[in-house]
Amino acid sequence: MNEMTGVDPGAALDALVQPLDVLIVGAGISGIAAARYLRVDRPGDSFAVLDEKETFGGTWVTHRYPGIRSDSDLHTFGYGFKPWVGPPIATAEEIRDYMGEVIEENALGPDIHYGWRISDAAWSSEEALWTVTATHSATGTERRISARFLWMCQGYYRHSEGYTPDWPGMEDFAGEIIHPQTWPEDFDGTGKRLVVIGSGATAATLVPNVAEQVAHVTMLQRSPTYFRSEKNEIPIAAHLRKLQVDEDWIHEIVRREILLASHEFTERCFADPEQVKTELIGVARRYLGEDFDVDRHFTPPYMPWRQRIARIPDGDLYKALSGGRASIVTDEIERFVPEGIRLKSGALLEADVVATATGFDLCAFGDIAFTVDGAPVDFHDTVGYRSMMFTGVPNLVWVMGYFRSSWTLRAELVAQFVTRLLDHMQRHQKSRVEPRLRDPDMPLHDWADLEDFNPGYLLRGQHLLPRRGEDNEWKLNQDYWTEKDEFAAIDLDDVVFAYG
């Protein structure tokens, strides 16, 4: 019982008729997509969505640092079934509002239960059910929920804390160290010198947006990142609106245009990487001028798309640097000292506040303890069918989106596959499904091909992730244009699916 409200937080879960057909874990962009597709494509299914937070939104609730925005355009990061009518790069608030409209328009509110953390999930072959233990974070109330199918939409990183390296001397620093993932709401940077450690999308967003709040901000990076700087507008969308074209049509046309352009750009990155590198760095030179050391600060040691290319709409990071409100240092950290950070070059970078925009702490399956018939599941011992179903783990699907395209594109492909799979199982009266290898002797590798894509959180977390094979069906393919056709063509009677 919540003593302040007099409401039992477990009452809504107690009212569920169990077992559920589907339990969805996570109410972020993937979980809301899953719930919407179930509601529309399988209206007879019973389902519930559980999320540890007190509201929907996932990433867009966790991250509240100044300027937080999407790193993908909303015409593709938004859902295919709901037009996006704003600028392509959107703020967290705009994204949450959009998701709220999806919840309201599809009457999903009563199916989402907030404040519940799942600690364990147990599969019983005898009952053909998953049973999870959920604890209400505010009250400690515990409930057990059973479901025929488990849909993991909780993302891939730990929301409670970001990744911060353990640098020598951090305890000696006289100022404040914060991670953007847990940015304090009462932050006051007036008169303070802020150092942002990092070179990715978070650092590139934070630096120009916090520059007016502090005395000075310095972006400290070990090595540079590629950036794409474009106007935060889609000219074809504005033109079609002038022609009074219906928003559904505009959304579909713009979405296809962006998808094609993105696909062609990615292909160019691998077919002609030197030319793409020249183009991206050339944009930095045009903004920053010939006197700026672009070779040192904006020329990465790797070719484009081996790590994610961050977006800086309207060149805001470049403008902050060229305008003197911000500066950039490319060097490595020797240690923290009371006055700031001592660099390996010997220089001292003075700071009152240090923000460690140093990445995520990978958490592939929500820190949930999984068992199958009493045996613990180590997902690194499994092999991932299209990185969404796993050998030896029945009736479970995990959503892992794209890194080179918008996450949501793959979340929707998975959602469409799941509803089709559930239709197939119902039609053939099957209560269990799991993938199986076509060739038991297929060579296996760690989940990520680090020669192809190698961000830090994957380098640190390979041991937590399933294994992959060499064919597309046994790995996470980054090519939406290929997967949209392959997913649609999946034969649910194929021997790769073991039903029971």
TrEMBL record:
Highest taxon listed in the record's lineage: Bacteria
Name the needed cofactors: FAD
InterPro entries, alphabetized: FAD-binding_MO (IPR051820), FAD/NAD-bd_sf (IPR036188), Flavin_mOase-like (IPR020946)
The molecular function terms of the Gene Ontology recorded here are:
flavin adenine dinucleotide binding; N,N-dimethylaniline monooxygenase activity; NADP binding
Q: What keywords are annotated for this sequence in UniProt?
A: FAD, Flavoprotein, Monooxygenase, Oxidoreductase
Respond yes or no to whether keyword Magnesium is given for this record.
no
- A single Pfam family it belongs to is NAD_binding_8
User: Belongs to which family?
Assistant: Belongs to the FAD-binding monooxygenase family.
Q: What is this protein called?
A: Flavin-binding family monooxygenase
